[in-house]
Specification:
The structure holds two protein chains of two kinds. Chain A has helices at residues 40-47, 70-77, 95-107, 111-124, 140-152, 170-187, 222-226, 231-238, and strands spanning 2-11, 14-24, 29-34, 55-60, 63-64, 80-83, 158-162, 190-194, 207-212, 215-220. By secondary structure, chain A is α/β, with parallel strands linked by helices. Chain B is 83% helix and 0% strand. The chains are: A alpha/beta, B mainly alpha.
C-alpha cells in the first residue's frame, strides 16, 4: 500500500500541494484526475522519489521514501515501473534494446533470457516484430506501448503511468487503457495512473481521486465520483468552463 | 512569519548578497557534480561500452577538424615566424619555434577549443535533450545512476582523447610548418628538424600533455554539467549549449595561463 500523508510542496512562492493525503490500495488501479497544471505530475514525481516534499510523508509498505536517498531509495525503486508522459525511450537504442535495458542493467539476466522476455513483452503490447525500429521511426501510440513494455518487463509490483494517453486519438486512448487493464489483470500490480481522459479512464479505475487546488477534493470508486454532488468534481467531469468554478 | 521589509538604502547590499549566495551555490553544485561523476567513474560496474562510444563521439569524430586546423595553424606559424626570423638572419630556428609554440601552447589550446566546438556542444545538447524528454529520470527510476551512464564515461573519454587529439594536432602542425618553411620558402629539411631536436625536450612535451589532460576534464565536466542542469524546452537546451561552449573556452584559456605559469 502507498500512503500519502499531508504532502506539501511549493515552487518558490507558488504552492502546488497543500497537505494532500491519499491511500493507494495494493493490487488496485488508482487514477488521479485533475486539471492541467494542478499538480498531478508533481504528486507522481514525489511517489517515485524524483521530488522531495516540503512537508509530509510518502509511505510505501510502511517505509517513508521521503527520508531515503541513494541506494536505500533505489531498493524501493527496484519494485517500480514508470511510464512517463512522453515515453522517455532512449533515442539511441532500438525498441528491443529499450525494453531489454532494465533487464540487462538492473537484473543482469543472460542474453537468451533477455531476448525471450523482450519478445514476450513486445508481444503483450501488440508490437511483435517491431523491436528493430528506433523510437524516432514509430508513431506516438507505438512509443507509448514500447514504454509500457519497458516498464512492465521487470514485472514490477507498482507501476506509475503519467498521462499515458496524452496526445493520442480516441481509438488509441481506448487501446492503451484496455492494454493497461489487460496487463493489470495478468500481473496484478498496483497501478497509479495520472490522467485527464474523462470519461474513458473510469472504465479501468478501481479508485478515482480528484486533485484540486493542491488537495484531494474527492476520492472513491468511479461510480461515486461520477455521481458526486461536488461542483468541482462535476465541473471537471463535464468539462464546464471556469466561470462556474466553486471556490 | 512574514519577512521584514528591507530599507531602500540596504537593497544594494541585499542584491550583492543574493548574487554572492547564487555564485557560491552554483560552484557548490558544480563541485558536487564532479565528485559524484568521479565516484561513478572509479567504482564498479564500469560502463566500458559507454566509455568506448564516448571516445568515438569526442575523439574519432573530431579527427578531421583537428587535422585541418592543425595543418593550417602550422602553416600560418611557419610563414609568420619565418618572415620574422629572416629579418635577423635566424631562420634556422624556424623548426624549434614552430614546434615549441605548438607543443607548449597552441596544440593543447586550439585542439581543446576545436573539440569543444564540435563535441562539447553536442554533448551538452544530447544530455540536455535527454533531461527534458525525461530519459534521465527514466534511468533514475530504474534505480540506475545516470552519472555512471552519461557523465563518468564522458569525463574519462575526455581524459583519453584530449591528449591524443593534441598530439595529432602537434604532429600535423609541425608538418604544416615544414610544408611552408622547407617546401615553399626553401629552408633545409635537416635544419628544420635538426634544430627542433636540439631545442625541444621532454618537459615541453609534458607541459602540453598536462594541459591537454586538464582541458579534457574541464570541457567534459562543464559540458555534461550544463546538459544535466538544462532549463526548459528547446530554448533551455540552446542556452545551455551556448553557455557550455563559452564557459569551456574561457576556462581553457584561464587554465592555460595558470598551468603555463606553474609548469616548467
Amino acid at each position: 500500500m502507498i500512503q500519502i500523508e499531508s504532502l506539501v510542496k511549493s515552487f518558490g512562492p507558488q504552492p502546488v500541494l497543500r497537505g494532500l493525503s491519499l491511500e493507494v490500495p495494493t493490487g488496485s488501479i488508482t487514477v488521479i484526475i485533475g486539471r492541467s497544471g494542478g499538480g498531478k505530475s508533481v504528486l507522481l514525481r514525489h511517489l517515485i522519489g524524483l521530488l522531495y516534499p516540503d512537508a509530509g510523508r510518502v509511505l510505501v509498505d510502511g517505509v517513508d521514501i521521503t527520508t531515503l536517498r541513494g541506494r536505500a531509495l533505489d531498493e524501493v525503486r527496484r519494485r517500480y515501473g514508470v511510464v512517463f508522459q512522453g515515453g522517455a525511450l532512449f533515442d539511441s537504442l532500438s525498441c528491443h534494446a529499450n525494453v531489454a535495458f532494465p533487464l540487462r542493467e538492473k537484473l543482469r539476466l543472460p542474453a537468451t533470457e533477455i531476448a525471450k522476455r523482450v519478445d514476450a513483452a513486445l508481444g503483450q503490447v501488440g508490437l511483435e516484430g517491431m523491436g528493430a525500429k528506433f523510437p524516432a521511426e514509430i508513431s506516438g501510440g507505438m512509443r507509448k506501448r514500447v514504454a509500457i513494455a519497458r516498464a512492465l518487463v521487470t514485472e514490477p509490483e507498482i507501476v506509475f503511468f503519467d498521462e499515458p494517453t496524452t496526445g493520442l486519438d480516441p481509438v488509441l486512448v481506448n487501446t492503451i487503457h484496455h492494454l493497461i487493464l489487460d496487463l493489470h489483470r495478468r500481473f496484478r500490480f498496483t497501478a497509479v495512473v495520472v490522467s485527464h481522459e474523462i470519461p474513458e479512464i473510469f472504465e479501468i479505475a478501481d479508485t478515482v481521486a480528484m486533485l484540486h487546488d493542491g488537495l484531494i477534493a474527492e476520492v472513491g470508486p468511479p461510480a461515486a465520483i461520477q455521481a458526486s454532488p461536488s461542483r468541482v468534481v462535476r465541473q471537471f467531469i463535464r468539462g464546464e468552463p471556469d466561470n462556474s468554478e466553486e471556490r | 512569519m512574514p519577512e521584514r521589509p528591507i530599507a531602500p538604502t540596504l537593497r544594494p547590499f541585499e542584491a550583492v548578497g543574493g548574487f554572492t549566495i547564487g555564485v557560491v551555490d552554483s560552484l557548490g553544485r558544480f563541485g558536487t557534480f564532479f565528485g559524484e561523476a568521479l565516484g561513478a567513474a572509479v567504482t564498479p560496474p564500469f560502463k566500458v561500452r559507454a566509455f568506448i562510444d564516448r571516445i568515438d563521439y569526442i575523439g574519432y569524430r573530431s579527427l578531421l577538424i583537428i587535422l585541418l586546423t592543425g595543418t593550417f595553424t602550422g602553416m600560418v606559424l611557419g610563414l609568420q615566424i619565418y618572415l620574422t626570423l629572416v629579418r635577423f638572419g635566424s631562420e634556422a630556428f624556424l623548426g624549434p619555434a614552430v614546434a615549441l609554440s605548438l607543443i607548449r601552447e597552441l596544440g593543447p589550446v586550439l585542439a581543446a577549443l576545436m573539440v569543444t566546438g564540435r563535441a562539447g556542444s553536442a554533448l551538452t545538447a544530447e544530455i540536455g535533450i535527454m533531461r527534458i524528454t525525461e530519459q534521465i529520470d527514466a534511468l533514475t527510476v530504474m534505480a540506475l545512476n545516470p552519472m555512471r551512464y552519461l557523465v563518468a564515461p564522458s569525463i574519462l573519454a575526455g581524459l583519453v582523447t584530449f591528449p591524443l587529439m593534441t598530439a595529432i594536432f602537434d604532429v600535423v602542425g609541425i608538418f604544416g610548418g615544414y610544408l611552408v618553411g622547407v617546401r615553399l620558402l626553401g629552408l633545409s629539411e635537416g635544419t628544420y628538424f635538426g634544430e627542433m631536436q636540439t631545442f625541444v625536450d621532454m618537459s615541453d612535451i609534458m607541459t602540453g600533455f598536462w594541459k591537454s589532460i586538464s582541458f579534457g576534464i574541464v570541457v567534459t565536466w562543464v559540458c555534461t554539467y550544463k546538459g544535466f542542469n538544462v532549463g526548459h524546452g528547446a530554448e533551455g537546451v540552446a542556452r545551455a549549449t551556448t553557455q557550455a561552449v563559452v564557459l569551456s573556452s574561457v576556462l581553457i584559456l584561464v587554465c592555460d595561463y595558470f598551468m603555463g605559469s606553474v609548469l616548467p
